[in-house]
Amino acid sequence: MGQNRRRQRHPLDREADRRLEAIADIIEPLARSPGKHCGIVLHDYRRLDRSVVAVARKVTKRRVASAMSEIGLSVVAEGRAAQDRLNYLAKARGARAVGPHRGGPSATDRSR
Fold first, then answer.
1. Strand, coil or helix: what is 27?
2. Strands, DSSP E only, in the chain?
């Protein structure tokens, strides 16, 4: 009984972790594609208090293990009715506006 047993992870959690790792490996080249004003923040919606799992091109100054943004929390609150958030204006640290640039999104929150 005195043994520390590692908590078994659900197979769906393991699959989600595997997918997040695969996506994290490719977000840097994806963010470079549209230009220097594009950044990508990858979230794990299972961990709202530390949802950021990867950041490419720190346009928003977000950091790994930081909490979900207001926009992300609004997506979570909508549940299955959630829609993608595209071309939105947000504020980065220091109240610097981050959003659509030259007709395209510089920050995107995906609901799925």
1. helix
2. 40-43, 52-56, 90-92, 96-98
Contact yes or no for 41/62 (Cβ under 8 A): yes
Instruction: Name every residue whose Cβ is closer than 8 Å to that of residue 49 and which is 6 or more positions away in sequence.
Output: 67, 68
Strands 40-43 and 90-92: unpaired
Has this prediction a pTM greater than 0.90? no
For every one of its 112 residues, what pLDDT tens digit does the chain have, with 9 covering 90 and above? Answer: 455 556 777 889 999 999 999 999 999 999 998 888 888 899 999 999 999 999 998 887 889 999 998 888 999 999 999 998 887 777 766 656 666 644 444 444 443 3
CB 97 within 8 A of CB 91: yes
| All structural domains of the chain with their residue ranges | 11-98
Round to whole Å and give the CA distance between 39 and 42: 10
